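**User:** Everyone, produce a chain:

**Assistant:**
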Amino acid sequence: MNITSGTKDLHEQGSTALKNRDNKKIMNEHQQVTPQPAVPCKTLYESVTNALEDYFSYLDGEPPANLYEMVIAQVECALLNFVMERTNHNKTRTAKSLGISRGTLIKKIAQHKIDSSKRGE
């Protein structure tokens, strides 16, 4: 399943859950209805936006410093770690999955101080 179809499925499931919950409320007007959990973020964009909202809330009105550099570094590190785990720490497969050269991957692993020796664990 690709991310787009997964997002669509989550959205449809969330919409259906909300409709079902609303219908139960109408049908059981005088009975207590257990609330449904919130629908999780559906896209990477929404996840990043939510993280930024949390970060700005944490800053409590203070201006951020080096925001672009910080966000790119955090996302890149998470991406590298995630794909390394998925490829069992195989650098050639990881680089190919990321669309970068193996040399660039090795440079980024060093830059982010990622332990790439977990192969086969």
User: Anything to note?
Assistant: The longest helix spans residues 3-27. Residues 1-11, 13-33 have pLDDT under 50 and may be disordered.
